[in-house]
Amino acid sequence: MGPRFAPGETIYNNLEDFYQKGTSFQNYLNMTGGTEKASFLLSVQHLDSKGITPESKYDKASVRLAGTVQISPKFSANASANYLNSGGERPVQGPGLFGGSGAI
Known about the structure:
Blueprint: H1 14-18, E1 23-34, E2 38-50, E3 57-72, E4 75-89
Antiparallel strand pairs: 1-2, 2-3, 3-4
């Protein structure tokens, strides 16, 4: 048998060229404070994740605010609000580009 490739012929490594190193970064910031009669919590979070295939990613950001106040010795009030925004992109999966079932 002779050589698999001719001398000087370009050899492609499609798997190595296609896949990439995936990464994920997550950051948090939490703050709390208050007095004897009132307290608060502020929390911020961010996630940035990239997958091993091109154009695959996910990101998420959230903010939470909560508070408590002692109005009288027998009465207190609590409040909380949360905001979340997330999104991402996934590469094409399954049998086709246009959502077909793959059946002919």
